[in-house]
Amino acid sequence: MLTRHPIVQIHPSRFCNYTCLHCYSSSSPDVRNGLPVNTILSTTARLADEGYRLASLSGGEPVLYAEFEALAEGLTAQGYQTSVISNGTHPHRLLRTMQAGHVQHASISIDGPQHLHDTIRQKEGAFKRALTALSTLLDDGQSTGAVVSVTQQSLPHLPQVVDDLIAHGIQQIQLHPIAAVGRASQSVDIIGAELPQEALMRLILIAEVFSKLYPNVQFHCDAVSGAMLNTQPPAQNGRLISPIVIRDDGWLVPYSYDVSNTFALGHVSDPVVNCRLNDQTAAAVDCALDACKRLAACTFYREFANVAKQA
Length: 311
Ligand code: SF4
Known about the structure:
By secondary structure, this protein is an alpha/beta fold. It has helices at residues 37-50, 68-77, 91-99, 114-121, 126-139, 158-168, 188-191, 197-213, 279-294, 300-310; strands spanning 7-10, 54-57, 81-86, 105-109, 144-150, 172-177, 218-221, 224-225, 244-246, 251-254, 266-267, 297-298.
């Protein structure tokens, strides 16, 4: 999990047309400021020199970032393969950028059956719009997946949701347990608390069963069993951090949007970005891995953010 190809996760802005209850970045239509595209690109250029080749755009709704096309085009010019996570409300702008060859993969968020999706998105009709976006991209032959945020309420519906997505022609499905961060932490009474151990384990098993049932569909589960991390070697000082997160406030942090600034790797205004593990970050990685190994099931990035909070 810590040795994937180096990824830069970019949050250009927290502007969004939705105010979803589970939004870890507390994005909304009221957040108007963001990072200028040239500032982002000068940072990604430095990261490309360090070996980063994959960029993932999220937000806020990245397709609504004013300079979305310029950002995607600039990343392509720097040699990145770019993916976008979108709520699917502006599929044609996304499609045009994909057709231009500046975005290679799109994931549309689907958070359960229609009633749960529309509730969590606080928008009637959101589910239908997300499905329309999937069809728009798939019909054009674009590489398209779905990111499913899993709550205690949506977990029992997952087999049906996954079946429906596959019937729709989806090629990649990411299962992401919600984290009680940002607006999600204030919405526990409606969307429930984070998935407990037993539910995370069920999620891991569901993903494995679906991988066997549908070998042509790529499943990725953000939860892992503690035992799966037993072979993970200790963190090594100097190793490239992946993912590295560029937040809309300009700070670069390791692994997860909500990691404390105590572990900040730099700021987009800095001439040099330190994107390798130092003693402090490596110790926190090892601490998070130890915590994960003691658990039946977990998500590493959540544990890392928890360790970082206590440091
Ligand atoms: S979860 Fe996504 S779509 Fe919902 S408010 Fe946050 S950024 Fe917008």
